[in-house]
Design brief:
The complex is a heterodimer of chains A (101) and B (289). In chain A, 52% of the residues lie in helices and 0% in strands. With 101 residues, chain A is mainly alpha-helical. In chain A, α1 crosses α2 and α1 crosses α4. Chain B has 289 residues and is an alpha/beta fold. Chain B has 2 domains: 213 residues, 3-Layer(aba) Sandwich (Rossmann fold), CATH 3.40.50; 62 residues, no CATH class. Classes of the chains: A mainly alpha (101), B alpha/beta (289). Chains A and B meet through α2 and α3 of A and α1 of B.
Amino acid sequence: MQQMNRDAARKVVVETIREVREDWELSMPIDDSTGLFNDIGFESIDAVALGSAIEEHFDRSLPFAEFLTRANEENWSDVTVGQLVDFITQHLDGSPTAAPQ
Amino acid sequence: MGKVTVNGVNLHYQQKGEGDDIILVHGITSCIAQWYLKIFPELSKSYRVTIYDLRGHGLSEVTQHGYDSETMALDLLGLMDHLGIERAHLVGHSFGGGISLHLALLRPERVRRVVLLDTGLACLRHLRLIENWPGWKKYGTVLKAFGITLDRFLEVDRNQDVREIVRKSLSIPLQSGFRRGKVALTPRLKKLVDDTDMCSEFREVGALTEEALATIQTPVYAVYGATSPYEKMAEHLGNLMPNCRFELIEEAGHFYAIEEPQLALPRIQSFFEEETADVPAPAAEQVSS
């Protein structure tokens, strides 16, 4: 199983967000507390593209649909970069991390 | 995730799963995200499922023209050719159903079965509920607050171009999801609505007339919401098309397949499984919900 620490995962997430939103002049700083939808202005299609790009980066399938469904069902106000980083590290190194929110 | 240029337009698509092919076709002003959380992953457990953004939508190229059902059926055909899909089951939500039927008309050998999820067809516009649409009672106050009154709707609807109504309806804040409270009219959709001819071209009947529908032998399952403005089209299609069954889902509106995908999923699965099980194609009938 591939090992992944949070810093490395965050770097991939931030770079991929900038790639996905490259047409929209995203110049703001991005950290763990940044919300994809409320702060960055994601549309649903951006979330789909981000999930796919991260899967392609790691060359493996990740359960993004289940992650987003859970976030939806639990009425999260947004999905933050930190929550996404937790999700990725959890699934890439197989070890449980603190549940988001 | 892939991108390919077919029929003169660059289309974004995703594919998942193994087995017989299903292609999911979304409607006007939507994108592949509508399938992403439930219907796409569930169907891909048993089928190879392809989802794609229509031209002008999602991550596909925005073109000035080409938003009529025939051009978009040819987009779909080009995508099937590119992906090596010889025959596929099609699921179309709203206008996506018109695209699916148009492909069944043009290239019946490429289409196995079609599920229509509350599809409003241009040739059946005379069947739409307008004054007597139950939604006016439920949503009338909100619609009026955003400039959509029955009188204004009727006035704009006389024209081929309904940009004003599309624009206003997308200006109503979303009630659910991560973007709740924000308007549906994102910068991408604004470009599509304001800068292209989509808002008139999607209303063209073209070759998909009632007479043409009556010649389509492809098995079709028309699943409509009982409170949708298009609900009368379900029974009409059941009578008009030689191999079409229909169903009205109680309490469901035009967007049930997006808001309550669990209503659509088992119906899609059972209809496609029938063919796999080699059950004779369904006769026209009403199925109680």
